UniProtKB/TrEMBL annotation:
Keywords: ATP-binding, Nucleotide-binding. One of its GO terms (molecular function) is ATP binding. InterPro entries: Fido, Fido-like_dom_sf, Fido_containing, WH-like_DNA-bd_sf. PANTHER family: FIDO DOMAIN-CONTAINING PROTEIN, FIDO DOMAIN-CONTAINING PROTEIN DDB_G0283145. This is Fic family protein. The active site is at residue 197. ATP binds at residues 201-208, 239-240. Residues 108-266 form the Fido domain. The keyword Transit peptide does not apply. Gene3D superfamilies: Fido-like domain (1.10.3290.10), Winged helix-like DNA-binding domain superfamily/Winged helix DNA-binding domain (1.10.10.10).
Length: 359
């Protein structure tokens, strides 16, 4: 069976780009704490937006979907699930809320991971929720010509409980020793978790929930305000490529987790940059600015198309109704132009012109 020894990570030399990513994220973490103290009320709206986006994106990666309207209603508990997909979406919502509210009291142990998995699938009524897999699962890849090949065969069911036990023990030992930066340790743990693939279903979603949990426990709270899952969903091809590169030679302990570490750090840093952009918009517009001023400032800084939903997400101090009213006024004033109709509606700055390709 594969052994897990994270002490060796402290002795490794990492590529310059990874060292730089870690340093930049440390700097962002310091500024994050300041922003949270200064603007707690405005950031509350970012939290609610991020929760919805995280739930939507993490499930979408697995092909579990519903409409944006239904997603918001389910999150606000204004409706009940109408399908198996919506049952699983509600389960993710519940576990995400548990992690947001209780991350300091969820140790990285098999029993707790099983309980989170149970809650993830409980609403869907799946009997294997909260239990390790009882059948072998494989990670397949569908090639462009339609053929399916097995890319990786995870740990067999009979070895899974012990593998997860060893994995959690290795993480807790390494974290307690404090010789390895958490930003290195977390992606290595997640990569190993995915190679074990301990459940019949829900492994990808659990890996993303555990990523958030571990980041929160180490003071990296950006996932509360900006959806890490959405950033992964937007770059999922690179996500799968990084995993594929990091699991080669895994059973022999010869795999190199560097590609997955690099990818994870890029995702975290991208979320911090977006977080600071949104907080910066709050600072520029000032607390005394009207909703119109705030929305106008956003549109003046925006290049290309944007939707009302994007404006709502980037202007957390403004309600949705005020955003829509401000956009209407900006259209009437000739500052922006409204394009499309219905769900396809978007806006562009009036001073921009569509560039048409030459004949």
């Amino acid at each position: 069976m594969r052994t897990f020894d994270y002490t060796q990570l402290a002795e490794r030399s990492w590529p310059t780009d990874i060292v730089n990513f870690v340093a930049k994220i440390h700097e962002c973490k310091g500024r994050q704490d300041l922003f949270v103290r200064q603007k707690p009320t405005e950031l509350d709206r970012l939290v609610e937006i991020a929760k919805i986006q995280s739930t939507e994106a993490s499930n979408k990666i697995e092909g579990i979907v519903t409409t944006s309207t239904r997603m918001k209603q389910l999150f606000a508990e204004k409706t009940t699930p109408r399908s198996r997909d919506e049952d699983e979406i509600v389960g993710y919502r519940d576990v995400l809320n548990t992690i947001h509210e209780n991350y300091g009291y969820i140790p990285i142990r098999p029993s707790y991971i099983l309980q989170l998995h149970r809650d993830l699938l409980k609403k869907a009524g799946l009997s294997f929720g909260g239990h390790f897999k009882n059948v072998q699962n494989v990670i397949n890849e569908t090639r462009p010509d339609g053929t399916v090949v097995t890319r990786f065969t995870p740990v067999p069911p009979y070895d899974t409980p012990e593998a997860v036990e060893r994995l959690c023990h290795a993480y807790e030992q390494a974290a307690a020793a404090e010789k390895i930066d958490a930003l290195i340790l977390i992606p290595v743990f997640i990569c190993d978790f995915l190679c074990i693939h301990p459940f019949n279903d829900g492994n990808g979603r659990m890996s993303r929930l555990l990523t958030l949990l571990l980041l929160y426990q180490n003071g990296y709270d950006v996932g509360k305000y900006i959806s890490i899952e959405k950033q992964i969903e937007k770059t999922k091809d690179r996500y799968y490529e990084a995993l594929a590169a990091a699991d080669a030679g895994w059973y022999e302990g010869k795999n190199d987790p560097t590609p997955f570490i690099r990818y994870t750090l890029q995702v975290i840093l991208a979320c911090y940059i977006e977080f600071e952009d949104r907080v910066g918009l709050m600072a520029k517009t000032g607390q005394r600015s009207t909703a119109y001023d705030i929305v106008k400032h956003y549109t003046e800084e925006k290049i290309g198309k944007f939707t009302s939903a994007e404006v709502v997400a980037h202007c957390p101090s403004v309600s949705r109704s005020s955003v829509l009213a401000a956009l209407k006024k900006l259209v009437e004033a000739g500052e922006i132009e409204k394009k499309g109709a219905g769900r396809g509606t978007f806006y562009v700055r009036a001073d921009s012109e569509a560039i048409r390709p030459a004949d």
